[in-house]
Inverse folding.
């Protein structure tokens, strides 16, 4: 179907005519009786997979089922940080594949996802941090991923609000900087993929919860029971984040996942003051400034598994303690909103993008606390896996069987990521 | 923040506790006899239930002891607390008592 293209000229023309005449960006179709493939979960990863299935694999008779509204789960709840400075070869390949797709995603989708490679700086506060981060810098360079070591004065130059005095509880001893890292507008990622997938004929069906997985005599997937009726299909890709265990249990598949609440919060909007993304894993602070002016702050996971999409206040205050020490100028700012999302965490803190023991059932899960950055790359290789019934070389190591066979991708202990 | 009733010390804030994950997972008596899949199940597979979950807590900044709890992971409301070694309470009964406002839960332990 034809779709209005976004451009400066189109914006000018619509602006002069009172912004009337913009089209709806995607349809709201009724589910058909059957599809060639169905994606369960209308977040960035699921909508992206549908887009790449249609765009690169010619599967256009497909649908995305979302139990709520698209982009309403973790896609709309994260702190939008994008980076690829992971330690191991497998992870570096996966996350850098994603960063490369981020770099021209707005052009490819003709939708401004506001990707801003403003640099992600990770602070070191202990001798151990220094050693680990320098190891990361070298490992990343071996994998062609940019990452550089900064002394405290260089870190302050890169991020002027940073406090590098040595009289705080955990002084800044240095930093690792990935300049290609940055942020993007998370809602726009879901909307951009939805719009582009819809234009290729993909049905995006909201308020449609999967309640059962129908299987044939040989065990293969034959359809999905949903809150909007039975839909037949032979391929199902599940991209349901914190609810993946629940969906896969419908087919009797067990996964090494636990679902935890992860929280974030934003401040009142202020003028531009914060030029980059700063992360401190040791004292747990993640902070950047949105284009709207809010400071976007990521807190940690709660201790216990939960599906409530909310967490405890002490998790947020712990993070704010660290923020106030690192950036004393923010001490009197007010926080406007906080919220939680449910993240699916694997034992080795690496994702699973793989076939399952059930023929025709595929899963993309286990992104834990860091899935947003991977959205385009994850969606791209998941679409490949579904279309060809075999993994892309990049996601081949990210199987379920790695837990049985001992090939863990153990980013938990030594990674640049805080989990 | 959760309010957790330690069966030994009574009701305390969550900050005094550490989480111990799924309860009633017995370490295999003869690990050498397990095949890889069974060992994987023991090490890594958790039920991750959306509903009533039996889980372990440890009163780390109190008496130091482990105990078990039933919690609804869709609301974070506790239904029951019980000592390690005691059988898992009947979920229907625990739900019924929780519907009465958790009055069955001890305020100050035993």
């Amino acid at each position: 179907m034809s779709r209005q293209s976004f451009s400066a000229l189109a914006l000018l023309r619509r602006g002069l005519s009172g912004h009337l005449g913009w089209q709806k960006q995607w349809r709201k179709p009724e589910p058909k009786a059957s599809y060639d493939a169905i994606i369960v979960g209308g977040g960035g990863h699921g909508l992206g997979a549908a887009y790449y299935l249609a765009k690169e694999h010619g599967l256009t008779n497909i649908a995305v089922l979302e139990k709520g509204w698209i982009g309403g789960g973790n896609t709309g709840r994260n702190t939008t940080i994008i980076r690829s400075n992971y330690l191991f070869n497998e992870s570096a390949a996966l996350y850098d594949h994603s960063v490369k797709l981020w770099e021209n995603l707005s052009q490819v989708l003709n939708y401004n996802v506001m990707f801003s490679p403003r640099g992600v700086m990770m602070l070191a506060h202990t001798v151990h941090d220094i050693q680990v981060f320098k190891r990361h810098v070298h490992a990343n360079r071996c994998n062609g991923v940019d990452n550089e070591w900064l002394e405290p004065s260089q870190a302050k130059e890169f991020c002027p609000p940073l406090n590098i005095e040595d009289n705080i509880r955990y002084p800044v001893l240095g930093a690792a900087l990935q300049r290609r890292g940055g942020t993007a507008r998370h809602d726009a990622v879901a909307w951009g993929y939805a719009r582009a997938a819809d234009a290729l004929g993909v049905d995006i069906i909201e308020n449609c919860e999967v309640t059962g997985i129908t299987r044939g005599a040989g065990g293969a997937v034959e359809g999905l029971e949903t809150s909007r009726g039975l839909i037949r299909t032979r391929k199902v890709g599940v991209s349901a984040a914190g609810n993946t265990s629940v969906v896969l249990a419908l087919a009797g598949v067990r996964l090494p996942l636990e679902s935890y609440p992860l929280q974030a919060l934003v401040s009142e909007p202020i003028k531009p003051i914060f030029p980059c993304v700063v992360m401190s894993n040791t004292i747990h602070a993640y902070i950047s400034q949105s284009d709207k002016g809010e400071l976007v702050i990521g807190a940690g996971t709660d201790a216990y598994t939960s599906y409530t999409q909310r967490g405890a206040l002490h998790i947020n205050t712990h993070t704010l303690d660290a923020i106030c020490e690192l950036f004393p100028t923010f001490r009197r700012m007010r926080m406007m909103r906080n919220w939680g999302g449910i993240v699916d965490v694997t034992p080795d803190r690496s994702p699973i993008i793989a076939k399952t023991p059930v023929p025709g059932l595929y899963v993309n899960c286990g992104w834990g606390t860091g899935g947003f950055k991977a959205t385009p790359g994850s969606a791209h290789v998941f679409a490949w896996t579904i279309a060809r019934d075999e993994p892309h070389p990049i996601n081949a190591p990210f199987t379920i069987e790695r837990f049985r066979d001992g090939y863990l991708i153990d980013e938990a202990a030594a990674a640049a990521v805080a989990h | 923040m959760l309010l957790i009733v330690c069966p030994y010390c009574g009701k305390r804030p969550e900050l005094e506790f550490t989480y111990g994950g799924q309860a009633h997972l017995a370490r295999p008596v003869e690990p050498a006899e397990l095949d890889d899949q069974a060992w994987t199940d023991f090490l890594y597979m958790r039920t991750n239930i959306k509903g009533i979950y039996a889980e372990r807590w440890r009163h780390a900044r109190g008496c130091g002891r482990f105990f078990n709890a039933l919690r609804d992971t869709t609301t974070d409301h506790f239904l029951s607390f019980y000592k390690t070694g005691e059988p898992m309470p009947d979920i229907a009964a625990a739900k019924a008592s929780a519907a009465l406002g958790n009055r069955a839960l001890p305020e100050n332990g035993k």
